Amino acid sequence: MDVAVTTIGLRKTYLRRGTRRAAVERLDLTVPAGGVHGFLGPNGSGKTTTIRMLLGLLRPDSGQAWIFGHRVPVELPAVIGRVGAIVESPKFFPTFTARQNLRLLSDAIGTPRTRIDEVLEATHLRERADDRYAGYSLGMKQRLAIAATLLKDPDLLIFDEPTNGLDPAGIREIRDTMRALGDRGKTVLVSSHILAEVEQVADTVSIIGRGTLLAEGRVADLLGSSTQFRVGVPDLQRAAAVLQDAGLPTEQEGAFLRVTTEDGEQVTRLLAGHGLFVRQLTPMRPDLESAFLRLTSESGLDAAPEAPVAASPDELPGGGA
Amino acid sequence: MTLTVSTVPASRVGVPYGALVGVELRRLWWRRLTKVALAIAVLLTGMTLYGAYQSTAPDTIAERVQSYRQTVAQFPQMVKDCQQAQAQARESGDAGADFGCAQLTAPTPAEFGLESPEAGALTASLATTNAYLYAFLAFVLGASFIGAEYSSGSLGTWLTFEPRRLRVASAKLLAAGAGGAGVAAVGLGLTAVGAWLVSRVNQPDPALQLPTAAADESITQLLIRCLVVAVAAGAAGVALGMLVRNTGAVVGIVLGYGVVVEGVLAQALAHGRLAPWLPLKNLEAFVERGSTYFAEACTPNGCQMEAMRVTYTHGWVYLLVLSIVGVIAALAVFRHRDVG
Known about the structure:
Order of helices and strands of chain A: EEEHEEHEHHHEHEHEEHEHEEHEH
Transmembrane segments (chain B): 36-53, 131-152, 173-198, 218-243, 250-270, 315-334
CATH superfamily of the largest domain in chain A: P-loop containing nucleotide triphosphate hydrolases
Helix content of chain A: 25-40%
Protein name (chain B): ABC transporter permease
Shape of chain A: elongated
Keywords (chain B): Membrane, Transmembrane, Transmembrane helix
Number of helices of chain A: 11
Strand order of the largest sheet of chain A: 6-7-8-3-9-10
Largest sheet of chain A: 6 strands, mixed
Pfam family, one (chain B): ABC2_membrane_2
Number of domains of chain B: 1
Oligomer: heterodimer
Radius of gyration of chain B: 27 Å
Largest sheet of chain B: 2 strands, antiparallel
Number of domains of chain A: 2
Number of strands of chain B: 2
CATH architecture of the largest domain in chain A: 3-Layer(aba) Sandwich
GO molecular function, one term (chain B): ABC-type transporter activity
Shape of chain B: flat
Strand content of chain A: 25-35%
Distance between the termini of chain B: 29 Å
Radius of gyration of chain A: 24 Å
Distance between the termini of chain A: 35 Å
Structural class of chain B: mainly alpha
Largest interface: A-B, 62 and 44 residues
């Protein structure tokens, strides 16, 4: 498997009110090259801190990170041309126009000026390109940030909470954009605390809590196969008895039955054999949210208070943000 | 979004350093504050030139000539009155009374500002005064140049395009220095042209036979020193901005320092002997080729305030060392500090 991003033992602590607290705690992360990789976790779990460390904006206390095989931040200059990133909210000079902001960035990396019009066109901003950035809506700002990342034609795109504050149309647009980039062979690393949103677009995910990796892998593998079905039949009592007699754990849940089995066909066959015709059979597929809650519950992260940590011996000075 | 962009690859190794400085200069030029600083420099230079025009205008000269002539006519009587008063004092018992009548000297045209305005002297006088203004504008421009990047968060975006922080920081320092030079060059150019015009327009009546004021030193050297100060001030603004990360705080610290430390504490503490180690006093010594200060000098017979001098050499060496230390500190902090 080609790997776009790897971290080993990445750690970052902050000193707050005299106490050192870990934002990222020995994080081992692997992002496969190509496709969309969701980087999931609740607010404050260390997603943005990790991304900032990958981009050289924060210095890790300890641990190592690589992007396309280049050690970062030491070799970041060699690989930064292949990386486009939006960290948290888009950040540009508010009194400059979109075109001016893009031109500065474009000149900093030596792309031809024609590229600016191309990315403005691609993000539907060309008509408003000469308006000041301060006057842009949040959606337009987000699109400008994407336009900026496209100036480089990057192989790795890092989107940190890209749909924050967007309306449903904007969210869908961003989601489609990420999917399209992933389908073109780009690696898209998207962090989000909205699990349902990433579930729709990601091929693989990493889930972190309190700065620690809880799970990673293909979305389908993390979710597991469907083991429960919601069954709608006219006579719930009799249907429950039939299924339980067949050894299938069954519970009534409102106007439905919840049956635990991996074989939906068996349910319909059993009930039909007793003259009970199923009007609804819905696989109850676990979503990322329930997978995440299960993982945090198993690791005790949902209840444990945030604990102070000891400073790492190889900690670098000046770590406060 | 359609994402139908071409796949023209960006440079994977970054642009040459000169191009990076060029980008920073472009941003500096696009900023509103740069235009405001230029406008202020032009406006205040115009005001000082107008002041120079007024003080050398023929009407003003004529009034001064009249005043001078009256004083010359009254001078013998002044001496006589002084001697009489001294004699009376001695007669009334104070045998040692000395009113300094022997030291009274006849008034000179120069004491009444009666000099034919000369472009070089006018330029030197105005440039020396205005140099501090241009330096302050350059400083604010520099502080705001980097402060805006911190306040808007765009520094983080910038570093995802050019992560080599020493290149980034030094390009900003150079651009701000060049911006400071630009503001000062406009102001000093206007000063020189304006001073020449004033000297031409306000030529006094030749019959007055006024002496011509001459500049004490090379105007070119003075203008170069003023430019150097503006360049250093622009870079100092960026350097302090990198350390403090807020334009308002930087300007506040510098103004507060100027008023509290150099204006009050330095006088109150050590009986004025701190003056040679204060930045603004050394700046004055550099611009004006030396600066006078008063400090307490003590001998076995006692202490008294004496006029002392910060030399030009002391001034430029001090400022050079201060600038090097400041820039190194700013680069080190910028290189290592987290960007939030």
